Amino acid sequence: MTNPFEGLLLGDTLQPNAPVGRYTAARLGGAADWLYVARHDEDELMKVIRAAWAADLPVRVIGGGANILVADSGVRGLLVVNRVVGLDALPDGVTLSVAAGTSLTQLCRRCQALGLAGFEWAVAVPGTVGGAVVNNAGAHGGDTAASVVEVRVLEADGVVTYAHADLDYAYRHSALKSRPDRRFVVLSALMRFAPGDPAEIQERMDEYNAHRKRTQPGGASLGSVFKNPPGDFAGRLIEAAGLKGLRVGSAMVSDKHANFIVNDDASGSANDYYRLVRQVQAAVLAHSGVSLETEIEFIGEFGEPHPQSNPGDNLR
Ligand SMILES: Cc1cc2nc3c(=O)[nH]c(=O)nc-3n(C[C@H](O)[C@H](O)[C@H](O)COP(=O)(O)OP(=O)(O)OC[C@H]3O[C@@H](n4cnc5c(N)ncnc54)[C@H](O)[C@@H]3O)c2cc1C
């Protein structure tokens, strides 16, 4: 295999044929042809991506890997794990410039310390600002879109700034998420919050943390597997179909929260997880007539989708 990154002096941050499971919240997935963990800075990240694009290598950037299932057969081309962090307050005191690799928890805690309200919902949501900007992550009635002013994105032609209005935000959706070309990298976001009382902000964070501990399972999972259909909850529909505890190999529908599928085996298989997702989809369709759409994304090649699965899924 020729090395498109020769001369970039990346040390052990770039590896050929490297397993990616430890970089995903489900702890699943095979090896990437190339794995680059961007820890240094934005300039290095951009050099690596541009080198891969110049060599026509497929590139996928992930943050915390909290919303993606990587196939057992791995990822072709380059997988970038973005860990480039940074957080600067603008002079207005309510706007922050945040590097895409910054974790949501870290941003939430910083907001609390600065007396900025509006991001408490993210206190226990795994992942990075980059992933949240793409997914419009949200919880407890809040979401990422509510704070995004603009987003800096690396594209083939250079760095582009998208205003909030360009991003077509909706429930767990953005214009970036539905882009078929994947030739973009979120570098940073300008996010605006409201002034708030740090003690009250902390109180809400504690409340959300406690709620999560009460209602969601621990261990390896991808959070909510399916989007809530209009006017209903995916978890309620899955539970009503009697699927709590349903298992395919290492993957199990959580007893605690039916919209979570946990991987409870250190040597588990992404294909088990995938097959269970499809079984749940088919069973809910048969039970209630509702076609659940996945919130999680699949990266790499999986088995054939179930014939009754939703064609609008995030399978790519
Ligand atoms: C236990 C648990 C609880 C969860 N609870 C919630 C919740 O309450 N609400 C919620 O909305 N989600 C929840 N999630 C899902 C997840 O936390 C969010 O979707 C989060 O935004 C994913 O961020 P990430 O950095 O891990 O993104 P990843 O999973 O790494 O990537 C998600 C998508 O964004 C793309 N992407 C990531 N970074 C970049 C970048 N810099 N440039 C370009 N593309 C990029 C990826 O290619 C992929 O398409 C939960 C997950 C877990 C495991």
**What ranges have pLDDT less than 50 throughout 5 or more consecutive residues?**
305-312
Question: Which structural class is indicated by helix and strand composition?
Answer: alpha+beta
Give the tally of β-strands: 19
Assembly form of the protein: single chain
Number of domains: 3
Listed once per kind, the bound small molecules are: flavin-adenine dinucleotide
CATH topology tier name of the largest domain:
Uridine Diphospho-n-acetylenolpyruvylglucosamine Reductase, domain 3
Give the mean pLDDT: 94
Strand content: 25-35%
Q: Please give the share of residues in helix.
A: 10-25%
Q: Tell me the CATH architecture of the largest domain.
A: 2-Layer Sandwich
The radius of gyration over CA amounts to 19 Å
Order of helices and strands: EEHEEEEEHEHEEEEEEHEHEEEHE
Termini separation: 25 Å
| Biggest sheet features | 5 strands, antiparallel
CATH top level assignment of the largest domain: Alpha Beta
Shape: globular
Provide a descriptive summary of the structure in words.
With 316 residues, this protein is an alpha+beta fold. The chain has 3 domains: 11-82, 2-Layer Sandwich (Uridine Diphospho-n-acetylenolpyruvylglucosamine Reductase, domain 2), CATH 3.30.43.10; 87-201, Uridine Diphospho-n-acetylenolpyruvylglucosamine Reductase, domain 3 (2-Layer Sandwich); 217-299, UDP-N-acetylenolpyruvoylglucosamine reductase, C-terminal domain (Uridine Diphospho-n-acetylenolpyruvylglucosamine Reductase, domain 1, Alpha-Beta Complex), CATH 3.90.78.10. It has helices at residues 42-54, 104-114, 129-135, 198-215, 234-240, 270-288; strands at residues 14-19, 31-38, 59-62, 68-70, 75-82, 87-89, 95-99, 116-117, 138-139, 142-143, 148-155, 158-163, 184-192, 194-195, 220-224, 247-248, 251-253, 260-263, 297-299. The protein has a 5-stranded antiparallel beta sheet, with helices on one face. Strands 1-2-5-3 form a 4-stranded mixed beta sheet, with helices on one face. The longest helix has 19 residues, at 270-288.
